[in-house]
Design a protein that fits this description.
By secondary structure, the protein is of the alpha+beta class. It has 3 helices and 2 strands; from the N terminus they run αββαα.
Length: about 90
């Protein structure tokens, strides 16, 4: 867990991503048009609102698993990964 950005020192406590709900809805709408159960989304938060950059059908779960310290330990997430074919 990081409480501040390692390079800039920006502290995350209390920070709220602007337009997060809009960004989330944008990815939900886009996901409904894909045949995949799992996708990684790149979204930019701009002064004019969120912009969907791309969706990735292979979002590199293993790199995130290593970096985050083991979220595959969560039984709900682990079950979903097995369901979509990721051991």
């Amino acid at each position: 867990v990081h409480f501040a950005h390692p390079d800039t020192g920006f502290e995350f406590s209390g920070f709220v991503v602007p337009d997060f709900d809009s960004a989330l809805e944008m990815t939900r709408v886009a996901a409904a048009h894909l045949p995949y159960r799992l996708a990684g989304w790149d979204v930019a938060i701009t002064p004019d609102g969120p912009v969907l950059i791309e969706g990735n059908h292979s979002p590199h779960i293993y790199g995130a698993e290593i970096a985050d310290g083991g979220y595959k330990k969560n039984p709900v997430f682990r079950s979903f990964l097995r369901e979509v074919g990721i051991p």
